[in-house]
Amino acid sequence: MNQIYESLLSRKSVRVFEKRSVEDSIKEAVLHAAFQAPTAGNQMLYSIIDVTDEELKKKLSITCDNQRFIAEAPLVFIFLADSRRWMDAYEEAGLTARKPGAGDLLLSIQDAVIAAQNAVTAAESFGLGSCYIGDILENVEEVRKLLDLDAYVVPITMLVLGYPEAKQKERGKPVRFEKEYIVHENHYRRLTPVEHREMFAKRSGSETFDYDEYMRKFCERKYMSEFSLEMTRSSAVYLKAFLDESEEE
Ligand SMILES: Cc1cc2nc3c(=O)[nH]c(=O)nc-3n(C[C@H](O)[C@H](O)[C@H](O)COP(=O)(O)O)c2cc1C
Questions:
Q1: Which of 34, 112, 194, 217 pairs as cysteine with 79 (C-beta 3.0–4.6 A)?
Q2: Which residue has the CA at smallest separation from atom 6 of ligand 1?
Q3: Are 120 and 141 in contact (CB under 8 A)?
Q4: CATH class of domain segment(s) 3-171
Q5: What tens digit of pLDDT does each residue of 122-147 get?
Q6: Nearest-atom index, ligand 1, CA of 113
Q7: Element (H, E) at 226
């Protein structure tokens, strides 16, 4: 197996980091790899906030569902889907370009996430661990103020990075669903009730897997949880603000 493939297969999220900081040269190399990711029209429709202020890290660890490890991460990068920079650039050229719309937003989200994943893979190659923080979508009102965002700049994901503590390296990687439930040929197909049960049972690796109990607990703990409801509310505010701004005369 080649090294890149091996790294993609073995990579897992890291949430506990050694106290040592990440060398500037490695941080620069990780960011540089993010910039080399594919990007729509070579526009780089994203910006990255490098969070170096420890107080800000602490505040973000609270707004992101009180995940304390965020405050302790040596590196914290926030990937913003950024339609503002190109709007301003058009304006600077004296153009009256149309306002960014839904397509631009979705494209910029793709750009931001692809760049983030390049950073993850590059970080891994330097022995750094990382974890995505989806909860950056929560608490829009506070996050906007903390980061000085406007309606065309949406924080899509956050990455925390650092050297993994030994125990994190030993932790097993969560098993994925099997290909037959994920890849469809030529058109989308809803899974049957039996397939749903099989898919989870196979992933659990246990012959006595209790589907109904697992689903009940997962739904309660994740999907219906306070943080998930807040993420849904907050994300809708970002979307509405973006689309309202683009519809304004
Ligand atoms: C979009 C996204 C959001 C995530 N948000 C969080 C988060 O807020 N907190 C956290 O601890 N892990 C978060 N994770 C990490 C996932 O929990 C993790 O990737 C998943 O459980 C699979 O484990 P693995 O990455 O170790 O293979 C997130 C991952 C992704 C891709």
A1: 112
A2: 133
A3: no
A4: alpha beta
A5: 999 999 999 999 999 999 999 999 99
A6: 1
A7: helix 226-247
